[in-house]
């Protein structure tokens, strides 16, 4: 014979406790998974910032020196911790303005989005993994931009 306590018998109360325990465990697992995703996103953002500091900015600055020496105008901006923009104006008979923008993707944190092109033209969009970013990769994109002015 089962004993009723407050409208629920002992068997139903044990089932309820079991279900509530399972729900609590699932909620804790979800919380831990969210925490792990946030840690991974932050790790990848930090990795992008390291790449920006050690590869992207020095490579772009090297190009700036050479372009400025030739009389062209350049500007390098860190728009945020996740975005770098390099503007160039080629001084010729008709000056041309171009840009190369490199940004870290929040939606896909192991990716970097690149956008480059010349004013009055549709810019090129590209995505690459963080591992693909090195000085040669950045130099190649900037050379593609500059070759588009010729």
Gist?
With 150 residues, the chain is α+β, with helices and mostly antiparallel strands. It has 2 helices and 7 strands; from the N terminus they run ββαβββββα. The protein has a domain at 51-147.
Quick one: overall form? Answer: rod-shaped
Structural class: alpha+beta
State the helix count: 2
Q: What share of the residues does DSSP label as strand, in percent?
A: 25-35%
Structure summary, number of beta strands = 7
First-to-last CA distance: 93 Å
The major beta sheet can be summarized as: 5 strands, antiparallel
Percent of residues in helices: 40-55%
Order of H and E elements: EEHEEEEEH
Rg of Cα set: 27 Å
Main sheet strand line-up = 3-4-5-6-7
Mean pLDDT: 89
Oligomer: single chain
Unreliably modeled segments: none
Describe the protein's architecture and organization.
The chain has 150 residues and is α+β, with helices and mostly antiparallel strands. The protein has a domain at 51-147. Helices cover 49% and strands 29% of the residues. The protein has 2 helices and 7 strands, in the order E-E-H-E-E-E-E-E-H. It has helices spanning 10-69, 135-147, and strands at residues 4-5, 8-9, 73-80, 83-90, 96-104, 111-118, 124-129. The strands form 2 sheets. It has a 5-stranded antiparallel β-sheet, with helices on one face. Strands 1-2 form a two-stranded antiparallel sheet. The mean pLDDT is 89.
């Amino acid at each position: 014979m089962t004993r009723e306590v407050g409208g629920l018998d002992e068997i139903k109360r044990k089932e309820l406790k079991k279900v509530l325990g399972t729900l609590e465990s699932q909620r804790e697992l979800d919380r831990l998974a969210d925490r792990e995703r946030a840690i991974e996103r932050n790790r990848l953002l930090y990795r992008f910032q390291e790449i920006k500091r050690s590869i992207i900015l020095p490579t772009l600055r090297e190009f700036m020196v050479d372009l400025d020496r030739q009389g062209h105008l350049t500007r390098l901006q860190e728009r945020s911790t996740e975005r770098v923009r390099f503007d160039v104006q080629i001084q010729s008979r008709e000056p041309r303005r171009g840009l190369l923008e490199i940004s870290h993707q929040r939606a896909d944190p192991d990716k970097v989005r690149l956008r480059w092109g010349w004013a009055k033209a549709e810019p090129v969009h590209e995505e690459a993994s963080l591992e693909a970013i090195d000085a040669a990769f950045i130099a190649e994109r900037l050379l593609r931009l500059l070759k588009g002015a010729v």
